[in-house]
Amino acid sequence: MRFPSFLVASLAACLLGGALSAQLGHKRAMTLEAAKQIAAASEAEARKNNWNVVITVVDDGGNVVYLQRMDETQIGSVDVAIGKAASAIKFKRPTKAFEDALKGGRQAILGLPGALPVEGGLPLMHEGKIIGAIGVSGVQSFEDAQIAKAGADACLKMK
User: Fold this and answer.
1) pLDDT grade, residue 13 (50/70/90)?
2) pLDDT digits (tens, 9 = 90+) for 129-145
3) What homologous superfamily is domain 27-156 in, according to CATH?
4) CA-CA distance, 121 to 130, in Å (whole number)?
5) Residue 45: how many CB atoms within 10 A of its CB?
6) CA 97, CA 144: separation in Å to the nearest integer?
7) Quick one: three-class SS letters along the chain?
8) Strands of 129-137's sheet, edge to edge?
9) Tens digit of pLDDT for each residue in 40-50?
10) 155/32 Cα distance (integer angstroms)
């Protein structure tokens, strides 16, 4: 007897269902509330030093979850902060790695799509996994990185 193909496919899906679901993992996701807390920690560091910056937090897909532009920060820093965060998440490393490579003569960095070779972008870690990234722009790049680190440190302490 021959069974209809849709019935065979349905039976196979049912039989494999348990095995397939066992392959699915659980992951933490960046929430708006978490992004706001991360940005608040970065903002506190910026204010402590009287620096006006743009702070951007993205999720693990590079999508902007939260962005804030402090008063008197140049408009150009909006795109730069987004770019730093996007670069950090796409390549799972601080943007300083690209800056250092470029300073070391590795010009090929300029050809990597989405790689922004300017310090101030950091991946955001939680429970050993990257859940997003932060990008800061508005002051000197090493100062941007100092502000971003305050946010990244806050992310590490979240529950």
Assistant:
1) low
2) 999 999 999 999 999 99
3) Haem-degrading domain (3.30.450.150)
4) 13
5) 22
6) 15
7) CCCCHHHHHHHHHHHHHHHHHHHCCCCCCCCHHHHHHHHHHHHHHHHHCCCCCEEEEEECCCCEEEEEECCCCCCHHHHHHHHHHHHHHHHCCCCHHHHHHHHCCCHHHHHCCCCCCCCCEEEEEECCEEEEEEEEECCCHHHHHHHHHHHHHHHHCCC
8) 64-69, 54-59, 129-137, 121-126
9) 999 999 999 99
10) 13
Average pLDDT on 30-38 reads 97
Give pTM, 2 decimals.
0.84
What's the whole-number mean pLDDT along residues 13-27? 64
